[in-house]
């Protein structure tokens, strides 16, 4: 006999095509532990409302605990004609508690408030586990920044040499967005902290069940204020999907730099053998597959977000079956990030930085031209003229194929009367870096403070 959750008014069962379209157990099964926890809490409020007596509650709870264990061990799984995780678990309950007792659990609840609550519970767990993984990566990057000491890197804008910066400063610029992503997850955790149980299909329950008691039982501090909102909204799922997409984008920006830094032309980094791959035809190849897969999978994680937003657009209140489509995108994001984060963390932890090469390149490409201009400003020259004079220095160097530091005292005097030989003091990458010493700047002392402040942020998050 087919144990569907509905059927009384139907003359026939669903067609094979409908059943195939409708079934969701192949993806919503991961919510089974939450659903059993929800059922146990629901049984307790049925008991509190006088709808189950003491023996019935005990029998129901014992059956649900056995069901939970059978789900965990794999002894109980969804059958081909179970429509969704809720249907399958009700069948499992009835198999364990009998039709009479098992059939009492569904009073006063709907799959609509069940699923809205389950997805919140699942997302709260994921928010915490993803936050831990993102923090672990932030910690590794921060450690690498600390180890980098005062090594200097050519800082870039438009991918062109711009101004020298500390390698540590650049690395830390990848840490702060990740910490903000974790803060976003924490904020979201607070908004997810409301159970939708008790909302029923959309209007609430007439059976005197206490939504706040279920909420407390399931670890929520409150239940939703509006049963229609509780069952019909998925903005919290979309918010989760956005933060996941942002994490993937932040990882992908770092990945892109590692790919570029790993080229022969840059030669800034070498990947550890255990975090790179070979070519099937070119024996010499050592490929950056981890950052490439990170960059590629970021596209897919963004797609999960945009697909979900498109599903939600223009959906009328309250529950519509379209909402079943909220789960696969976020499950895919979670699975993808669970693969990416350990790989990229291990890769960053084992990366070799060629700081001699970075240091050699840092003053090239006239990246100290701003230092000349700012030196002139300190001599009282208006910035507009200082910019022109420093620009003339670059033009002379370009014509003669030399760098700014190669300009002689005569060259300088020939360009402008304001350019005295002392300007050479700022024409080193280290001097340039040390001079940018306001809060948030790249001077070594400021970067040490920044690292300390990131460390304490990581501790509290
Ligand atoms: N499986 C559905 C979902 O994931 C919940 C079932 C609600 N179905 C219904 N016919 N009201 O959203």
From TrEMBL:
It is an enzyme of class 4 (lyase). It catalyses: 2-(N(omega)-L-arginino)succinate = fumarate + L-arginine. It is found in: Cytoplasm. Keywords: Amino-acid biosynthesis, Arginine biosynthesis, Cytoplasm, Lyase. Its EC number is 4.3.2.1. Pathway: Amino-acid biosynthesis; L-arginine biosynthesis; L-arginine from L-ornithine and carbamoyl phosphate: step 3/3. This is Argininosuccinate lyase.
């Amino acid at each position: 006999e087919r144990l569907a959750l509905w059927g009384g008014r139907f003359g026939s069962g669903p067609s094979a095509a409908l059943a195939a379209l409708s079934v969701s157990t192949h993806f919503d099964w991961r919510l089974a532990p939450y659903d059993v926890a929800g059922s146990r809490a629901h049984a307790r409020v049925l008991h509190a409302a006088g709808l189950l007596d003491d023996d019935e509650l005990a029998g129901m709870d014992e059956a649900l605990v056995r069901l939970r264990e059978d789900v965990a061990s794999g002894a109980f799984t969804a059958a081909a004609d179970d429509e969704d995780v809720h249907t399958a678990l009700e069948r499992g309950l009835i198999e364990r508690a009998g039709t009479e007792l098992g059939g009492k659990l569904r009073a006063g609840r709907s799959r609509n408030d069940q699923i809205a609550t389950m997805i919140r519970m699942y997302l709260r767990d994921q928010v915490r586990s993803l936050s831990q993984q993102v923090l672990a990566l932030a910690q590794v990057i921060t450690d690498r920044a600390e180890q980098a000491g005062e090594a200097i890197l050519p800082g870039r804008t438009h991918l062109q040499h711009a101004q020298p910066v500390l390698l540590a400063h650049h690395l830390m610029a990848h840490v702060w967005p990740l910490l903000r992503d974790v803060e976003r997850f924490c904020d979201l955790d607070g908004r997810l902290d409301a159970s939708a149980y008790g909302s029923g299909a959309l209007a609430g329950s007439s059976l005197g069940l206490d939504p706040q008691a279920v909420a407390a039982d399931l670890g929520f501090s409150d239940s939703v204020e509006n049963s229609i909102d509780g069952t019909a909204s998925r903005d919290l799922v979309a918010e989760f999907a956005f933060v996941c997409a942002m994490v993937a984008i932040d990882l992908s920006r770092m990945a892109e730099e590692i790919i570029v830094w790993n080229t022969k032309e840059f030669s800034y980094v070498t990947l550890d053998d255990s975090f790179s791959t070979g070519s099937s035809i070119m024996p010499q190849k050592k490929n950056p597959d981890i950052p490439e897969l990170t960059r590629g999978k970021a596209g897919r994680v963004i797609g999960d977000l945009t697909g979900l937003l498109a599903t939600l657009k223009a959906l009328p209140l309250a529950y519509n079956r379209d909402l079943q489509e909220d789960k696969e995108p976020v499950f895919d994001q979670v699975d993808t990030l669970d693969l990416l984060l350990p790989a990229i963390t291990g890769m960053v932890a084992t990366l070799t930085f060629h700081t001699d090469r970075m240091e050699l390149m840092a003053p090239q490409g006239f990246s100290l031209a701003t230092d000349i201009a700012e030196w002139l400003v300190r001599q009282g020259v208006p910035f507009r003229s200082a910019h022109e004079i420093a620009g003339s220095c670059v033009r002379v160097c370009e014509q003669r194929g030399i760098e700014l530091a190669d300009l002689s005292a005569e060259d300088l005097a020939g360009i402008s009367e304001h350019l005295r030989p002392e300007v050479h003091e700022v024409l080193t990458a280290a001097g340039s870096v040390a001079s940018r010493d306001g809060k948030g700047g790249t001077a070594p002392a400021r970067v040490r403070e920044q690292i300390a402040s990131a460390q304490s942020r990581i501790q509290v998050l």
